[in-house]
Amino acid sequence: MSDDIRPVPQPGILDIAAYLPGKSGAAGSNAVKLSANESPLGASPKAIEAFQSAAAQLEIYPEGSSKILRTALSEVHGVDADRIVCGNGSDDLLHLIAQCYLGEGDEAVMNRYGFSVYPIITRAAGARIVLVDEINYTADVDALLAAVTAKTKIVWLANPNNPTGTYVSDAEVRRLHAGLRPDILLVIDNAYAEYVTAEDYDVGQKLVAEANNVVMVRTFSKMGLAAARIGWLVGSPELVDVLNRVRGPFNVNLPGQLAAAAATRDTEFTARLQAHNAQWRDWIAQELDSNHMHVVPSQGNFVMVLFPDAEHARLAFDTLAERGLIVREIGPSYGIEAGLRISIGSEQAMRGVVGILKALVEIS
Prior knowledge:
Layout: E1 32-33, H1 45-53, H2 67-77, E2 84-87, H3 90-101, E3 107-111, H4 117-124, E4 128-132, H5 141-146, E5 152-158, H6 170-178, E6 185-189, H7 205-210, E7 214-219, E8 231-234, H8 237-246, H9 254-265, H10 267-288, E9 294-296, E10 302-306, H11 310-322, E11 325-326, E12 328-329, H12 331-334, E13 339-343, H13 347-363
Parallel strand pairs: 1-11, 3-4, 3-5, 5-6, 6-7
Antiparallel strand pairs: 2-8, 7-8, 9-10, 10-13, 12-13
Helix pairs in contact: 1-9, 2-9, 3-4, 10-13
């Protein structure tokens, strides 16, 4: 058999740029990771206890529909448990949506600096991704609607958006939905919902209840359970039925289900996490926003800092890394070469970042 003959992936797969995660410090170092928007307060103690309680049941398959978790989500968020689908992180659910609702010849629309997973899952499904320009790093509803064609099947909307931290108000999300055909699915990705403090924001749960072509996707990764990989969504009965036909039969492990259910009910910890984030997100924005650096207003658990040019951004990244503070370069994944994304961490980490960047400005 010739060595030149081998399995060939589907057309377009090799054109996909793989997802680039945030960097970590070297193994064994004391570097502080501020590159992946993880919880600065760890996980809920109740979630940790629940996770550990699963150790005596590791030989048993978990219940296939994640009923334990769906019940907790239903109780706390006031949504019908039958309209919830859980997954191995929200990425798992986004992949499922693309697999089920996109195909060859279809198009999906997103804002230019939206989450970098959307182009990957769109192209993997054989569809074309359409990038739409933003206004001040914020999704432009009019531009998104103008980009819709007869081929459009999905509109991806991260709200708040990663990596910019900007958001679209409830009124604007509803205006976007009102301008879409009934056969176009609006995917509202609320990975950072727990951190939003804007009064005109809404997670979209009410809109999901009113319309058959809206799905709300959320995650536990940003609130202390990144290692457990737990995501969830709320959609119409029809969409839930479609996804349940395709998802893996045991796609959420038992320790993760138990931990996420406990985290859901631990609203006190969630409130403490939000308060810590709001305090230090606002503080770092006030301290860094200047003639030399611009901090884009954020509703996430991170800020995007813009420097005069790519060279200054690279110098800032390298200097922070040398001091043991690892932030996220966003040029390679998003094309924002003059920007860095900085996760909100401990008070010590935030003061360290600000001190280093201010000193760097003074000598550059």
